[in-house]
Amino acid sequence: MEENVKQPLLERKYYEDCPGCKVDQAKELSEGQGVPVRNLFIIWMVVLCADKHSCYKVAKLALPISSLFPFLYFMVRDFNIAKTEADISSYAGYVGSAFMFGRCLTSVMWGIVADRYGRKPVIVIGIIVVVIFNTLFGLSTSFWMAVIMRFLLGSLNGLLGPVKAYATELFREEHQALGLSTVSAAWGVGLIIGPALGGYLAQPVEKYPHIFSKDSFWDKFPYFLPNFIISAVAFVVVIGCIWIPETLHNHNCRNESIDNAEALENGGSVASKDKIIQKKENLLLNWPLMSSVIVYCVFALHDIAYQEVFSLWAVSPQRLGGLNFTTDDVGNVLSISGLALIIYQLTIYPSVEKASGPIVIGRISGMISIPLLQSYPFIALLSGLAIYIVLSIASVLKNILSATINTGLFLLQNRAVEQHQRGAANGISMTGMSLFKAIGPATGGAM
Question: Measured on CA atoms in the order 411, 417, 419, 424, is the torsion positive or negative?
């Protein structure tokens, strides 16, 4: 009796000198071998030192951004540019907007560069930019120097778009949700480490006078230490990036993706309800892509406004309607949120996404966010230990819901295009998101 052997319906051709083919071949050979831990670690470290400003948590700069929140209010206050204490929040919002405005101008360009020359060069350049301009930001002696450093950090670091494409291409389809959720989880690590660095290491002369003497370098630059530590970590990651694989194909022949091949072999349709690859060259006419980008931009405006308002509201004096938290208090709340986010993204989200799909779970998360945000004014009426507990729970829920929506949108955007356009597609997404986020901090801080 003849054995029925399943033959592939679509022949896969690999090119010996193509780095993208090597990655695809490794993915094919890894079928059934479980989660690729090495790839998860690569994404984790890159995003941790690179960018996940797209969330209060995903990847803008995970450590550079999250470490900024606890001390930004005090940094702007020390610049003596605000005429009244109430104006400090507005100027702090401009510092946050400068980063996003810079990224808005260059995201598409960096996406095109990633599509033409590879994801790896853009990743390495982005982290080098963090090393340089994050250090210079810590040495800022005036408001305008801080704004310029943030603008240059945003415009010269085009990492977030390509790294999402990279996370999609590095994993087999069944692990893509885990790969992109790792982007958010890495931000969760940043939320644990970043606020702790910013809260405990900023103004070291005041907090640790027995170690850092008055009138020393650390007194002249009270916010340099946390930025320097982060830049040092980023430098180590730059060295490690020498060995990460490139996922972009360097040959002209555009083969059907491995995902398409697997779908054909299984007798299924290439296009599913959450994965519709468009063949059109004009990305602006790709409705599955652009619809997810529009939703992403609208939610980004909401999310960054929340981030800015939360941090400034927490440290503002009670007579101005704030909670009068210290930098340590803000750091503690954000760190708790970060820990919960890591656990959720790595253990719960991939299973939930697989069961319901990114669209359904995103809609549910959006609906739950509305009453949650409306509860914040009532949280301010609490006092003592109760306000810390309730605020921490609310912050955890807000971060988890935001990560669920963002990660689902990342999946939809990267599944809507083929590899040769994925960098540019993410660049368009980052441009729109950055434009909305440039508006968010300024308006949120003013409010």
Answer: negative
Rounded average pLDDT over 377-392 = 87
Q: What is the DSSP string of 233-279?
A: HHHHHHHHGGGSPP-S--SS--PPPHHHHHHHHTT--S--SS-----
What is residue 142's DSSP assignment? S
**Alpha carbon distance 132, 153 (integer Å):** 9
Measured distance CA(179)–CA(183) in Å, rounded: 7
Whole-model pTM: value is 0.74
Q: Please give the structure tokens belonging to residue 262.
A: 């697997």
Report phi then psi at 33, rounded to 5: -95, 5
Per-residue pLDDT tens over the stretch 396-410? 999 899 889 988 998
Q: What percent of the chain has pLDDT over 90?
A: 19
CA quadruple 242, 43, 118, 9: dihedral sign = positive
How many distinct helices (H) and strands (E) make up the chain? 19, 0
* CB neighbours of residue 214 within 10 Å: 9
How many residues appear in the chain? 447
Phi (first) and psi of residue 89, to 5 degrees: -60, -40
Average pLDDT over residues 353-361: 90
Q: Are 170 and 23 in contact (CB under 8 A)?
A: yes
- What is the Cα–Cα distance from 321 to 331, expressed in whole angstroms? 20
Angle, CA 396 vertex, CA 69 and CA 157 arms, to 5°:
40
CA atoms within 13 A on the CB side of 194: 32
Q: What dihedral angle (degrees, nearest 10) is formed by the CA atoms of 138, 142, 147, 151? A: -60
Residue of 66, 298, 296 whose CA lies nearest to 186: 66
For residues 403 and 407, give the distance between their C-alpha atoms in angstroms, rounded to a whole number. Answer: 6
* Whole-number Å distance between alpha carbons of 222 and 203: 4
pLDDT tens-digit map of 88-132: 878 887 887 788 788 889 999 999 999 999 999 999 998 899 899
